């Protein structure tokens, strides 16, 4: 048989209102809190170190640092998308460079056309699937959040009901204790009165006995 453990509750926040009833007590509590040392600025040794993002990707790491430091991104270089022609007296090297640039631009346009064709063919379905997955993830997260909120509300409700019940018991016990103390005081006063009466009778008896001699 396992030993039964009893819970010891020394604080009932849903029931105790001494701080509201006695402002002087609240001032003492505030002064005591002000005397407490400030919380440590360093983390506990068991807290794992901060996770370093993009440790194996220097480009993404540098971009993350740029965003965190609020530095404006570099503007796109549009010169490579232009086709500047050499002057009429251009050299062969300049014309060769212009020709290579034209080939590069043509290839770029061809790739854009291919990508647009693929996007028109498969993009809508891929986008729908992606949105469906996102909506499913959002629903799961919202469901978990609602479940956690319900559990939190239920725990607080149980705590409030339990503390209210214990508070009523404390009120009943305190009232009973006050009644018992009052009864004891009344009995003590009655005993004192009886002692005084007995002492008076004894003194009277002594006086009568002295007179009869």
Automatic annotation (TrEMBL):
GO biological process terms, semicolon-separated: mRNA processing; RNA splicing
Principal place of residence: nucleus
Superkingdom of origin: Eukaryota
Key words, A-Z: Coiled coil, mRNA processing, mRNA splicing, Nucleus, Spliceosome
Subcellular location as annotated: Nucleus
Any one Gene Ontology cellular component term annotated for this protein: Prp19 complex
Sections of the chain in a coiled coil: 131-165
Family indicated by similarity: Belongs to the SPF27 family.
Protein name from the UniProt record: Pre-mRNA splicing factor
């Amino acid at each position: 048989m396992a030993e039964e453990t009893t819970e010891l509750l020394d604080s009932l926040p849903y029931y105790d209102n001494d701080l509201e009833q006695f402002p002087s007590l609240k001032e003492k509590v505030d002064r005591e809190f002000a005397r407490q040392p400030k919380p440590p600025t360093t983390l506990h040794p068991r807290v794992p170190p901060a996770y370093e993002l993009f440790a194996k990707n220097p480009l993404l790491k540098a971009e993350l640092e740029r965003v965190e430091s609020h530095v404006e991104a570099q503007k796109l270089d549009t010169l490579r998308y232009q086709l500047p022609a050499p002057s009429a007296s251009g050299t062969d090297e300049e014309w060769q460079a212009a020709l290579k640039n034209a080939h590069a631009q043509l290839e770029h346009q061809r790739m854009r056309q291919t990508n647009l064709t693929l996007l028109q063919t498969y993009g809508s379905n891929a986008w729908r699937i992606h949105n469906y997955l996102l909506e499913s993830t959002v629903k799961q997260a919202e469901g978990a959040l609602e479940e956690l909120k319900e559990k939190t509300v239920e725990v607080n409700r149980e705590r409030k009901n339990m503390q209210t019940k214990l508070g009523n018991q404390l009120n009943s016990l305190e009232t009973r204790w006050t009644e018992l103390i009052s009864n004891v005081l009344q009995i003590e006063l009655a005993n004192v009165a009886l002692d005084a009466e007995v002492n008076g009778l004894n003194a009277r008896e002594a006086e009568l006995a002295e007179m009869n001699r």
